[in-house]
Amino acid sequence: MSVHSTSPDFKKNAARALGDAQLQKALGNVKQGFIDKREKATQKLPEFEALRDSARDIKNHTLQHLDLYLEAYEQKVRASGGHVHFARHAEEARDIILSICKEAGARTVTKGKSMIAEEIGINEHLETHGITPVETDLGEYIIQLRHEMPSHIIAPAVHLNATQVEQDFRRVHTHLDAKRDLSEPVQLLTEARGVLRERFLAADVGITGANFLVAETGTSVIVTNEGNGDLTQILPKTHIVLASIEKLVPTLEDVSQILRVLARSATGQEISVYTTFSTGPRHLGDSDGPENYHVVLLDNGRSAMLGTSFEEMLRCIRCGACMNHCPVYHAVGGHAYGWVYPGPMGAVLTPTLIGIDQAGHLPNASTFCGRCESVCPVKIPLPKLMRHWREREFERHLTPATVRSGLGLWGFFAKRPALYRLATGIAIRAMGFAGRRKGRFQWLPLAGGWTRNRDLPAPQGETFQARWRREHKRRAA
Amino acid sequence: MSARDDILGAIRHSLGVSGKETIRRQIVSDRLAHAPKGVIPKRGQVSGEALLALFKVQAEAALATVTEVASAAEVPQSIAHFLRDHNLPASLRMGDDRRLQAMPWNDTALDIAHGPSAGDDLNAVSHALGAVAETGSLVMVSGSENPSTLNFLPDNHIIVVSAKDVAGDYESVWAKVRLTFGKGGMPRTVNWITGPSRSGDIEQTMLLGAHGPRRLHVVVVKE
């Protein structure tokens, strides 16, 4: 673990997020935009469901043979003139990257978007050693100016509104005319393009992530819409690819299968604008491209997930569909989750990377509505995995005493169906009687957490089980 | 132990394998050798005019513009028209691609520069290895023939592609890459390009011209 986590404060973070008017306005864009776009894109491709199965199977196959595909990949990268570095944990990855940068005599480093870079906290490390990292993805650039973490894995600045971006640009771009018009989003984009173009051309090293690593050819693959990842890697003398070990896929055909579900699930595009396959440094006779090509392969706890129930999480291709469809994410945004990965995928992954004692609230922050699993392009059973975490949390006695005794009480009745029916029957009738006039409760003992914010509808005098039996009998008759 | 051996060892420990199992090694080497195709969308499985029409529709849906010309000799005039129609300067940078070099640029008033871009060019032209009709994507390979910088630094990027190189799906293009560079071999960079550069990072509103070209224009040579 490297980046400071506020995951233990999830409840406080969430409460603050709910009261933040700017954030709530910005989160409206997630609900409106992503869901419709994905739906349209998937409906236009009749093979989409078959491709989801195919993508899932490719990732499963690769994970089952990960040691061998890593060896094959490494050999191909070396054969193409590149270097491969293995890093057990964040600190090792930071040291490797720093020493490559020092060797290159780097003063500034441009960066393509990389969640692994966030995971290992590379920016801070480089800054400490006198090297300036420059984020080049527009969203990442904006949050770097604000010293924030991404609040979404593919839309890092989704928690901000244009007026906030304008204020940041005016604060930082002091070399530009103070009276310039920045009232339109396109003016903000144009300004960032101009400022970053100079940074691209001046950078000594470019660091990108990788959406995929291809074992067949020793190729790293990045996907962008802006073209920033490409300018990051073709202009400086040295290109560093920072990727975690589960990014491997066997062949170019396999990566093509997964690319067909990635953009559709993420932004609702049929494919991103730029899909780039990079293999080694510039070839003999090439007139541009980097002279040095390094790949840093990070484990950071992933090898230990293989062979456990959390292995399925290693299929994740970081499209963001799970958070785009999550009612909890819609309500509190990404920062409330307190570490690098938000939303349902973060609720499963974060406890494996920083510990369930730190991140125990995250798998609890789910209504288990199941939308995340239903849109996941590689069919990760996210609710099931969150439930596994809840069980572990319970087993390790990390759950608060009130919750434990409540669950114990519920368990006592649930294991005795006749008693359960009797008790719920009485309780429902009593509540129905008490609430018969208004049809709702503004206050109930032990239910303050609910009634503080909204009324609880009064029961209609009968339990679900009783009604089910009645309807069933009627139909059978 | 080195980090490499540690990580491979940890993976093997978790999977309950030694890494020496003949069957596992065979499965992996077979997959790498044969590269099975998986699910190919029917959409691209058309030919002739229908394939070109699909490419055009998909490229335009990604906000590229597409023009067809009857022969390579017509490309320079077509590009000159495009630049004039958009009030762009009559300058153009290109690499040393032989197909581009052979075109009659002297028939136009275009000021031609050669070699990679240093970031101050407004217009560039590149020749594609091929295109994929399924999504309207152009496939570019790096090299002095078509430097990668031309794909990203100029404001206006023009890509020439031969109609015979337009394929239905990505897999057909990989077959062509393997034919050109050998199985398992790759150029330094393969770029799939689908429309002009854009960003949705400010309030989820899509805006064109983020870091790469603001315009992408495709010239399909039909001969």
Q: Your description of this structure?
A:
The complex is a heterodimer of chains A (477) and B (223). With 477 residues, chain A is of the alpha/beta class. Helix content of chain A is 52%, strand content 11%. In chain A, the strands form three sheets. In chain A, strands 1-10-7-4-2-3 form a six-stranded parallel beta sheet, sandwiched between helices. In chain A, strands 8-5-6-9 form a four-stranded mixed beta sheet. Chain A has a two-stranded antiparallel ribbon with strand order 11-12. In chain A, strand 5 (212-214) and strand 6 (219-224) form a beta hairpin. In chain A, helix 3 (48-64) crosses helix 12 and helix 15 (343-354) packs parallel to helix 19. The longest helix of chain A has 23 residues, at 21-43. Chain A is globular. Chain B folds into two domains: 1-34, no CATH class; 41-221, NagB/RpiA/CoA transferase-like (Rossmann fold, 3-Layer(aba) Sandwich). Helices cover 32% and strands 23% of the residues of chain B. Chain B is built from seven helices and twelve strands. Chain B has helices at 3-15, 22-34, 48-61, 75-85, 98-101, 149-152, 170-181, and strands at 65-69, 91-94, 111-114, 123-127, 130-132, 137-141, 156-162, 166-167, 189-193, 198-199, 207-208, 215-221. Chain B has a four-stranded parallel beta sheet with strand order 1-12-7-4. The N and C termini of chain B lie far apart (61 Å). The chains are: A alpha/beta (477), B alpha/beta (223). Strand 9 of chain A pairs antiparallel with strand 9 of chain B, so a sheet runs across the interface.
Task: Give the topology.
The complex is a heterodimer of chains A (477) and B (223).
Chain A (H helix, E strand, L loop, with lengths): L9 H9 L2 H23 L4 H17 L1 H14 L3 E5 L2 H14 L4 E4 L3 H6 L1 H7 L3 E4 L2 H8 L16 H11 L12 H18 L2 E4 L3 E3 L4 E6 L3 H7 L3 E7 L3 E2 L2 H15 L7 E5 L13 E7 L22 H4 L2 H6 L10 H12 L1 H4 L1 H4 L6 H5 L6 H14 L5 H14 L2 H18 L5 E2 L6 H4 L4 E2 L6 H13 L1
Parallel strand pairs in A: 1-10, 2-3, 2-4, 4-7, 5-8, 7-10
Antiparallel strand pairs in A: 5-6, 6-9, 11-12
Helix pairs in contact in A: 3-12, 9-10, 15-19
Chain B lengths: L2 H13 L6 H13 L13 H14 L3 E5 L5 H11 L5 E4 L3 H4 L9 E4 L8 E5 L2 E3 L4 E5 L7 H4 L3 E7 L3 E2 L2 H12 L7 E5 L4 E2 L7 E2 L6 E7 L2
Parallel strand pairs in B: 1-12, 2-3, 4-7, 5-8, 7-12
Antiparallel strand pairs in B: 5-6, 6-9, 10-11
Protein name (chain B): Lactate utilization protein
InterPro entries (chain B): FTHF_cligase-like_sf, LUD_dom, NagB/RpiA_transferase-like
Organism (chain B): Microvirga brassicacearum
